[in-house]
Specification:
There is one protein chain. The longest helix is centred in the last third of the chain and has 33 residues, at 607-639. Helix content is 54%, strand content 13%. By secondary structure, it is α+β, with helices and mostly antiparallel strands. It has 30 helices and 20 strands. Mean pLDDT is 81; it is low at 446-483 and 586-599. The strands form 6 sheets. A 5-stranded antiparallel beta sheet has the order 1-2-3-4-5. The protein is elongated, with a radius of gyration of 35 Å. It binds zinc ion.
C-alpha cells in the first residue's frame, strides 16, 4: 500500500505530456498537445493533452483521464503500479506499507502475470551471466553471434538451464503460485501426473516487451541440434501477452522511428538486435510470424514509412509479399530491401562495416511495386499464362492502395515495365475494385446500408460456377423490386444503362421536323439524357434522380462522360451502393446466366438487339410516366367544377393520350418484331 502523502507527492511531480509522450508522439498545438489516439484506430489526431489541466481526452473515442488513468489503460497497470511507475520516473521515494501475505499473493491476475514474467526475465538474465551452464552455453552463443555485453543487457537476454524444473522451483520459493506460473506459460503441468516442468529448458531467452518496456513473455531458442526439439518456443497467449499485438523491439525503437520517420521491419529477433547494435535503431521484428493488422497499427502510431528487410530466399520473398499487401491496405508507404543469397539482415550486418551496411539498406530500398513486378517478370519470362497471372497479382497489390492518385501512378509505372497499355491495366484494376467493393458490401451486410428500394432477399447472391466470386441472382433481384416508387423498374433500367453502357454507341431512327425518318448514331449517354431532359421526365426515386442529375450535369457542362468513381465513391452511401450494385450486376452476368435465367441483358456486341433494348427502356419509362400523368389529369377533371377549366383539362388529357398511343404503338412494334 502506498501512503496517501506519497501519492500526493507523485501526482504533484507528474508532467502529463512527458508521461504520455513516451508512448504516443505528441505535437504542440496552442496551449495543448495532440497526437493519434492509442485507444482507437485513427489517422488524423484527435487525442488532446492539456498540460495545465493535467488531463487527456480523445475526441474520437471519448477516452479521458489523468496521467495515472492513462498508464492504467495503456500499460494495463494497476493503480499502485501506475503510481510506482511515476514515482520511479520522477525519483520520488515511496514508503510502502507492509504487504500482507494475501496482498503478496498478488492483487489481481494480470498484475500477477506481469510480476512473474518480470521475475523470470531477471532470473534468466542472471543465469546467463552468473551460472556456469548459462555462461558456457548461453553467453558463449551470444558472443559467438557478435553481440556485445552491453547489447545483451540492453535487450535483457537470458538463458534457461537444461534442467527439468529449476526455474519453477526457484519461483515457488519466492512465493509464486502454481496458478500464476502455469498461466504465464513459464511452467507446464502434466494433466495426469501433475508433474511440473520448465517450458524453456536449455534455451536462450529473448524477452518480449510492451511499448512501455514491461516484460510480457519470451521467445526461447534451442541451442542443441536435436531434431526433436522445436527451434523456437514462445510463451503461450495470456492475459498480458498476445503474439499478434506486439512487435519485438518497439520499446527501444519507437523514439528513433519517430525521429527518422521510418521503421525497418525484419523477421528475426536476432536481426533486430544486431541492427540496433550497429546503430540502426529504428528497427522492429515480426518474430517470424505472419504480420497482423494490429502490429501494423502499432507502427502506424509512429510513422507511415516502412522498409521491409527480408531474406532473399523464396520463403522470405513470400513473407515480404504478404507483409507488403497488408501495409498498403493500411495506408503505409512500403519499400523493400532484399539481401543477397544466403544472407539475412543479421549476417549481412555482421559482414559489412557499419556505414556500408547503412548505405546498403538506404540505397537498395526499392519501391515495392517495381520490386514485385521485376521479380515476377523474371519468373514469368515469355510464358503467357505466367504473365497473365503476374498481371493479376500486381493489379491486386495496386488495388490495395487506398489513395487513387498513387494507384494511378503505380499503374503507369507498371505499364512501362510490363510494356503493356496503361488502359489495359486500368481496366483490370477497375474490374477488381468492383468485385472487391461488391464483396465488401456483402460482408458488411447489405441490409444495413442499402436504401429501402435495394434490399435483396436471401437468395440474392449466388456463387459463380468456380466459386470465386458472388454474382447476383437476377431472378431474385426482379422479385425484390418494391412498390415504393411506381416506376421503379423503368427508372432503374435507365440508370443501369447510363452507368454500364453510357460510352457505347447506339443507332436510332429519329423523326426530323419534316416528319422524315432518319437513322442517327449517338452515345447511349447522350441519347438517353437528351431525350429524358427534353421530355422533362422526373425520376421518382430520389437516389435515381440524384445519379441522373449528376450524370446529366457532367455531360452537359463538361461535354464528357462522368468517371464512374464519382458514383462508386460517392459520399452518399445509398448512391455508392446503388451504383456498385448496378455495375456489378451487369459485370457479372455472363451469357451463361442469360441462358439459365432467361433474362435480357443489353449486349453492345449485337447492335440490333442493343439498340432495341435502349429504345424499349426509354419508351417504357415514358409510357409509365405518361399513364400516371393522365391519371392525375383525370382525377383533377373529376374534382373540377369550373367549365372552362374542365375544357382545358380535357384537351390536356387528349393530347397526353395521343402521345401515349404513339409511344405504345412504337413499343409494340419493337416488342413484337
Ligand atoms: Zn480515441
Amino acid at each position: 500500500m502506498i501512503k496517501q502523502e506519497d501519492i500526493s507527492k507523485i501526482l504533484d511531480a507528474t508532467e502529463i505530456v512527458d508521461v504520455i509522450n513516451a508512448f504516443v508522439p505528441l505535437k504542440r498545438r496552442g496551449v495543448n498537445y495532440i497526437g493519434c489516439c492509442p485507444f482507437h484506430n485513427e489517422k488524423t489526431p484527435s487525442f488532446t493533452v492539456s498540460p495545465s489541466k493535467g488531463i487527456f481526452k480523445c475526441f474520437g473515442c471519448g477516452e479521458a483521464g489523468n496521467a495515472v488513468n492513462f498508464l492504467m489503460k495503456h500499460e494495463h497497470y494497476s493503480y499502485p503500479e501506475a503510481l510506482r511507475f511515476l514515482a520511479n520516473k520522477y525519483g520520488i521515494e515511496i514508503q510502502e506499507e507492509e504487504l500482507t501475505d494475501d496482498q503478496k499473493a498478488l492483487q489481481d491476475e494480470k498484475e500477477g502475470l506481469f510480476h512473474v514474467t518480470d521475475f523470470a526475465q531477471k532470473y534468466f538474465a542472471d543465469i546467463l551471466f552468473n551460472d556456469t551452464e548459462g555462461k558456457n552455453i548461453g553467453l558463449s552463443y551470444f558472443i559467438e553471434r557478435d553481440l556485445k555485453e552491453e547489447t545483451i543487457k540492453r535487450w535483457g537476454l537470458g538463458y534457461c538451464k537444461d534442467k527439468w524444473s529449476e526455474f519453477t522451483e526457484y519461483a515457488k520459493k519466492h512465493g509464486y503460485t502454481d496458478e500464476v506460473l502455469i498461466k504465464s506459460g513459464l511452467t507446464i503441468a502434466k494433466e495426469e501426473t501433475h508433474v511440473q516442468y520448465d517450458r524453456f529448458r536449455g534455451r536462450v531467452m529473448f524477452p518480449i516487451y510492451n511499448i512501455g518496456g514491461r516484460t510480457l513473455g519470451f521467445t526461447g531458442r534451442v541451442l542443441s541440434s536435436e531434431k526433436t526439439k522445436a527451434k523456437y518456443v514462445n510463451s503461450p497467449e495470456s492475459d498480458i501477452y498476445s503474439k499478434g499485438k506486439v512487435l519485438f523491439g518497439l520499446h527501444l525503437a519507437k523514439n528513433e522511428i519517430v525521429k527518422q520517420d521510418l521503421c525497418y521491419l525484419v523477421e528475426g529477433n536476432m536481426d533486430a538486435i544486431m541492427l540496433s547494435q550497429n546503430n540502426v535503431e529504428n528497427v522492429v521484428a515480426s518474430s517470424g510470424t505472419a504480420l497482423t493488422v494490429d502490429q501494423i497499427r502499432l507502427i502506424n502510431r509512429y510513422t507511415k514509412n516502412v522498409t521491409v528487410l527480408y531474406d532473399g530466399d523464396s520463403a522470405g520473398i513470400k513473407a515480404a509479399f504478404r507483409a507488403i499487401d497488408l501495409f498498403l491496405e493500411n495506408g503505409l508507404n512500403v519499400k523493400i530491401v532484399l539481401f543477397p543469397d544466403e544472407e539475412d539482415p543479421d549476417s549481412y550486418c555482421r559482414k559489412l562495416p557499419q556505414e556500408e551496411f547503412k548505405t546498403f539498406i538506404t540505397e537498395k530500398a526499392e519501391n515495392f511495386i517495381l520490386f514485385k513486378t521485376h521479380l515476377l517478370l523474371q519468373d514469368a519470362k515469355d510464358d503467357p499464362f505466367k504473365r497473365s497471372a503476374l498481371i493479376k497479382e500486381i493489379i491486386n497489390t495496386i488495388s490495395l492502395i487506398p489513395d487513387n492518385i498513387e494507384k494511378a501512378a503505380y499503374v503507369q509505372q507498371c505499364s512501362s515495365i510490363l510494356n503493356m497499355k496503361e488502359e489495359l491495366l486500368n481496366n483490370e484494376l477497375t474490374k477488381l475494385l468492383r468485385e472487391k467493393l461488391f464483396k465488401q458490401k456483402k460482408e458488411e451486410g447489405l441490409k444495413k446500408e442499402t436504401s429501402p428500394t435495394d434490399i435483396p432477399p436471401d437468395d440474392f447472391f449466388l456463387p459463380s460456377d468456380d466459386g470465386s466470386e458472388y454474382i447476383t441472382n437476377p431472378k431474385a433481384e426482379k422479385q425484390v423490386l418494391p412498390d415504393t416508387f411506381p416506376d421503379e423498374a423503368q427508372e432503374r433500367k435507365i440508370i443501369s444503362l447510363l452507368l454500364n453502357y453510357g460510352e457505347k454507341e447506339t443507332t436510332q431512327i429519329m423523326i426530323a421536323e419534316n416528319e422524315e425518318k432518319k437513322e442517327e448514331t449517338f452515345l447511349v449517354a447522350a441519347y438517353l439524357v437528351g431525350d429524358i431532359t427534353t421530355d422533362q421526365i422526373d425520376f421518382d426515386n430520389p437516389i435515381y434522380k440524384e445519379i441522373f442529375d449528376i450524370y446529366k450535369d457532367y455531360l452537359l457542362e463538361k461535354g464528357e462522360l462522368p468517371n464512374l468513381n464519382i458514383f462508386t465513391n460517392h459520399q452518399n452511401k445509398e448512391i455508392q451502393n446503388l451504383a456498385t450494385t448496378l455495375l456489378i450486376n451487369n459485370y457479372s452476368i455472363s451469357s451463361l446466366w442469360e441462358s439459365k435465367w432467361k433474362i435480357s441483358i443489353p449486349d453492345p456486341e449485337c447492335p440490333e438487339k442493343f439498340n432495341q433494348d435502349i429504345k424499349e427502356s426509354l419508351l417504357s419509362l415514358k409510357l409509365n410516366k405518361l399513364e400516371r400523368k393522365i391519371n392525375i389529369v383525370k382525377e383533377n377533371l373529376r374534382k373540377e367544377s369550373d367549365i372552362d377549366n374542365q375544357l382545358i383539362l380535357l384537351s390536356e388529357q387528349r393530347t397526353l393520350e395521343k402521345i401515349k398511343q404513339i409511344i405504345s404503338n412504337e413499343l409494340n412494334r419493337i416488342v413484337t418484331r
